[in-house]
Design brief:
Two copies of one chain form a homodimer. With 305 residues, chain A is α/β, with parallel strands linked by helices. In chain A, 30% of the residues lie in helices and 17% in strands. In chain A, the strands form two sheets. A seven-stranded parallel sheet of chain A has the order 8-7-6-9-10-11-12. The radius of gyration of chain A is 21 Å and the shape is elongated. The mean pLDDT of chain A is 97.
Chain lengths: 305, 305
Amino acid sequence: MNILFASTKEQPEFWFPLLQKALPQDRFFAWPDTNGGDIDVALVATHPGGMFSGLARLKLIQSLWMGVENIVGDPELPRGVPVARLIDPGMVAAMGETVIAQVLDWHRHFWCYRQFQHDRVWKRRRQYLASDRTIGLLGLGELGGSVAAKLRALEFNVAGWSRRPKKLEAVFCSTDLEQVVRRSDALVCLLPLTGKTQGIINSRMLSLMPKDGCVINVARGAHVVIPDLLAALDSGQLARAYLDVFETEPLPADSPLWSHPGVTVTPHIAALTEPRTSVGKIAQNIERLRRGEAPLNTVDFAAGY
Amino acid sequence: MNILFASTKEQPEFWFPLLQKALPQDRFFAWPDTNGGDIDVALVATHPGGMFSGLARLKLIQSLWMGVENIVGDPELPRGVPVARLIDPGMVAAMGETVIAQVLDWHRHFWCYRQFQHDRVWKRRRQYLASDRTIGLLGLGELGGSVAAKLRALEFNVAGWSRRPKKLEAVFCSTDLEQVVRRSDALVCLLPLTGKTQGIINSRMLSLMPKDGCVINVARGAHVVIPDLLAALDSGQLARAYLDVFETEPLPADSPLWSHPGVTVTPHIAALTEPRTSVGKIAQNIERLRRGEAPLNTVDFAAGY
């Protein structure tokens, strides 16, 4: 097979040695070298504009990321070519680590103790235990399931919302968004970005949360209505927000988010795809293609992810 | 039974309603009211000096804390009266939460991203996964065992040192301190303070750790030789230190620790005793005493805890 690597964000030099080892019989090309258009599989993550037009033989578009809104939203996406999401076990593990870190930072008031340290003040906040808190997860797919298990291991109560009914052990699962938000001391967004999830964290949802909670957005910037979030922080309804993703990235230097005392900004690092843990998943899909089998984790275009 | 509550740190008003409910047939007194010296059980945590001399009928000294170095070190401690440590499930849970929070803060570079946010810099550090790291626990008692299980649930590798041989599932346990320290990317002190553990984290131990690691001290201030720790931070051998406990508390306003860029200071809040979760344990020991049985979790004076 001829495999094209085309991304404005991922670096082929980190991927090619591992890909070539996993798929020794295949040939790899890095955009803009398209082998004269003779390409079977495109590996993409924020792909160059117009790239699909010259690839008439394309059989599979394999994303290098879990989020595929850039691919699904490309008006030039060829029809009839399956698009596969990447479910990278390393990325899933990293996401769990980040969510736990941010939940604990809020839950045990470490954000507050940093201010006390800065002020050289020895002062205690009331101690809550994980078992006193309910963490609400928006999205109960691969990420939500893994994050829920880690939160449960720390004795947090977990509630979760998903579009389709789900069952997870010891997790309050619901398809009723408000029912989940009303009981969530911390709200964690793990959703794919679609027309239905854009702006899902807005003033209405924030007003339903118990006071003094936090919002953790590790999905996509457009899930959160930023003016609504800042209003909830400024009114004291919300204690803290942890934002890893933004509508414009890098976050512009003049954004008020950088210096807002209630906001932790991280540079889209909650969970990076790990070449070492994901190459096996990519190779699996390419081997399936070679055997004439349907690829795994293909996008449902009606759902948008 | 007549039960005396005597602590310069814990407030009787948080304890008495719960104690009276758990032990309805007993009478409670708050220091300095010693019922004319007619006291069967003393509940203590940093007790007032000289308090034991007037309590001739004392049958049990029940600590309100897990750490008992203030009791063991009191030269006026009556001989022959058992001293019991408090193993509070809430305090154990809280400790696990804090250690996980600090480990993740170091492991995923959140301490670094806070500086980047302050500087309005969008920059990424290399992503490591929990499975790339080994967390070393000094102390494998109730706290160490619970912390180890939570770290394992997050996929960290765990090594642990204890004075006596221990076996914990999927944890590298050793009684050889250097063997544990050499493999510990992060070193967590959970030890009781005794003559043998004082100053255990010193320049020799810090030099054995892999570079760029961190030290988390949630036990007692005297476990760490502070000048050695600061030297390891300043040389770049150590990336970060999380200190919750200090030889003098509150930490004096002129301590260099408050403003050291490599140090996170918290005001001894890693794990507070929770009256609601510990009253059952205290009541259990008092009921044992009433039935003429030996109390649980008594101090081994030869070991010092």
